[in-house]
Amino acid sequence: MSASAHTLDRFAVSTRRRRKDRFARGTVVAATVVALVPLVLIVYYLLSKGLGSWSPSFFSTDPTGNTFFAASSIGGIKSAILGTIEIVAVASALAVPIGLGVAVWLVEYGRSSRFAQTVRFFVDVLTGVPSIMFGLFIYIALIVGTGSSYAGYKGAFALALLMLPVVTRSAEVVLLLVPGPLRESALALGAPRWKVIFKIVLPTALPGLLTGILLAIARAAGETAPLLFTAGATMKTEFGLGGFMNSLPIQIYTDVTSPTTAVVNRAWGAALTLVVMILLLNLFARLLARRSSLG
Amino acid sequence: MSPEEQTVRASQVTASTERPTMSAEEPTMKTGESGEEAPTQMLDPSRSQPTASQSTPSGDAQTRANVRQGLAVKLEQLRAFYGDVAQVKGIDLDFHSGEVTAIIGPSGCGKSTMVRCINRMHEEIPGARTEGKVLLDDFDIYDPSVDVVAVRRAIGMVFQKPNPFPTMSVFDNVAAGLRLASRGRGDLQHKVESALRGAGLWEEVKDRLSEPGAGLSGGQQQRLCIARSLAVEPEVILMDEPCSALDPIATLKIEELIDQLKAKVTIVIVTHNMQQAARVADRTAFMLSGELVEVGPTQQIFTNPSDSRTEEYVTGKFG
Lengths: 295, 319
Known about the structure:
Shape of chain B: globular
Helix content of chain A: over 70%
CATH class of the largest domain in chain A: Mainly Alpha
CATH topology of chain B: Rossmann fold
Number of strands of chain B: 10
Oligomer: heterodimer
Strand content of chain B: 15-25%
Number of domains of chain A: 2
CATH superfamily of the largest domain in chain A: MetI-like
Largest sheet of chain B: 6 strands, mixed
Number of helices of chain A: 12
Radius of gyration of chain B: 19 Å
Mean pLDDT of chain B: 80
Mean pLDDT of chain A: 89
Structural class of chain B: alpha/beta
CATH superfamily of chain B: P-loop containing nucleotide triphosphate hydrolases
Strand order of the largest sheet of chain B: 6-7-8-3-9-10
Distance between the termini of chain A: 68 Å
Number of strands of chain A: 0
CATH architecture of the largest domain in chain A: Orthogonal Bundle
């Protein structure tokens, strides 16, 4: 055997390893493709079925309830869009500051104290609670308990409860990623702790915090169950939080079971609207975050 | 300035007097300082004393720039604990104003912990506590009436790894201390420039003040961090292995900077690099397992230590 052949033998990749490599790579590529299939299909169906029902009047009129007449008389989804915006906005206004506050406390003050561990445990438990439970809780506490009827703010409360653990958990993870030396050097400059949190820790974590908040908002905006027996279902646009309030998920839920094709199509249109709204919110927040972190 | 020259000068300074004569420092100060600087915040009678002796006929602005001087720090039976474990076991040590004191010793001997006690950063670690006294110019900073935040404004710190605030520009990084400590709305521009000049960074960054601080090179970032501490005009700066993440050239620049700064701020530097201690420090303290073994003029510690353990350490027999 010549010297060069000997060298080749030593350094050649064995066929067995080659085969293993090909198999492993094939598996992960296949997994990616399989995961992409439903994603692409969802977007495709939403666009193909939903875009058809989009028209100026689709966004500017309330649903009429005249579902058995001409397709043009069923009305749009104005009340649902406005209702979703209002309910989710109120829910976010409640859940985001509280959730961030809990996360800041856990990371900056509570750390590994017993109380902090307990809080962490309950936050984890809440993250896993099915969404209908939050609706049920509000239903029992604020509707059965007070003997009153459905109202927009009750829906917002249910969604806020749903968002709270998601915001808290994601914010905690992100705040933990802020390097300790950054806090230390700010403290060593003679900054009071609250300023270190507001001027250093939160801005540094901002992009991650936004991602968590947006995920929570997106999840809340798409929830039907907590709204079913808290905000109720209605057709007319209602701004007052005390009355029944329509929302996109509820609109989709009621429309999709209708025997009338035009109404089912309206459900697709509403679903597409919901997705586009969340997408826009996402883009908007990212732009805002990028500008603030450079400014 | 070459390292050799620095060593010589350091030994001259320690040999002659407690406080280095200002006139010798003058040429270096000129490049480092421009214009006047605000009078120090922590005015007290003992501080105004050295002013007269420092007045040199080399210009009014410069004289005023030299008014500031570091404060002496004195540790009395300092102990530091993590939970129940004592990491620093009763240290008495003086840091003279206008001098650089190096702390050397093997890893885990409590150097960093001790230094972190001096500006009360040690207590930021959960379960950590301190006993004993740290006197800043005869004033115990562990007194219950003392505001920790004020202590840290007077005693700045530079960390091992350069850590500019990632969301901030070069300018904002330097201004951060002033803004966070709500000290300086007045003429931020001037104070930032003065701090950057003090850290020998101004010429390199003056055209990129609005760029992110994290975009600078490692050495520049560390000098940016020094500028950031300088901006709040501390009387003492603690440096915890400030060059361990830097290349030799960046290290040399920091060492030159330390040499210029010591006229204005008392400097305590923890270092693993014994050559560095020899180059920059007027006095050197050797620590071993939480205790102070020996402290003295740098030259003496390295050439003629009185304790055999010090000799073994500085000659590389262990550690």
